[in-house]
Write a structure and sequence with these properties.
With 168 residues, the chain is an alpha/beta fold. Helices cover 45% and strands 21% of the residues.
Length: 168
């Protein structure tokens, strides 16, 4: 049994065009609120008997070598991992986020099948894809609702069977 959640990171509408320091203060306030909300949600998920996996991916462009992407996850002190997106692949943030989910699902699939998992992922692209979008794209021959070709099909072809095997 799997659940996915992505937090809302919308800026405070009350900041308007105030000075940068006011924006920074508002941003710090928003992060404190988000942290408290996350801590509360973690307690709720753990009370449901689920184990939480925190997964993330990112990319950066280096002036001398170009884009580099990596990913990682925290399952608890025994199962942390981090890695780079293979150099033969596109180095993008979405690809790194999706690689993080794929690796997590591979690990979860290899563990006790009676455990309930919750994934904390900050990528709307990955959460939307994992909760039905990618299955819909597959059914429509990898064309999205907007008529565009779906991205990262090779990884979604690995992710979807794992989600299905885990009962999601």
């Amino acid at each position: 049994d799997l659940t996915f959640h992505t937090p809302s990171l919308s800026p405070s509408p009350s900041l308007g065009n105030k000075r940068k320091s006011a924006f920074s203060a508002g941003l710090k306030h928003n992060w404190r609120v988000l942290l408290l909300e996350a801590q509360q949600r973690i307690r709720e998920v753990e009370a449901e008997g689920r184990l939480i996996v925190f997964a993330d991916g990112s990319s950066i462009i280096h002036d001398d070598i170009g884009p580099v992407a990596g990913y990682g996850a925290y399952f608890g002190s025994e199962l942390d991992f981090s890695d780079f997106v293979p150099i033969r692949e596109q180095q993008s943030n979405n690809r790194a986020e999706l690689r993080a989910l794929l690796k997590c699902l591979q690990i979860v699939h290899s563990l006790d099948s009676h455990t309930c998992w919750a994934f904390a992922i900050d990528s709307k692209y990955v959460v939307d894809g994992a909760t039905g979008g990618a299955a819909s794209w597959r059914e429509s021959y990898w064309v999205t609702k907007s008529g565009k070709g779906a991205s990262h099909i090779d990884l979604w072809l690995e992710v979807l069977p794992l989600l299905e095997a885990l009962g999601h």
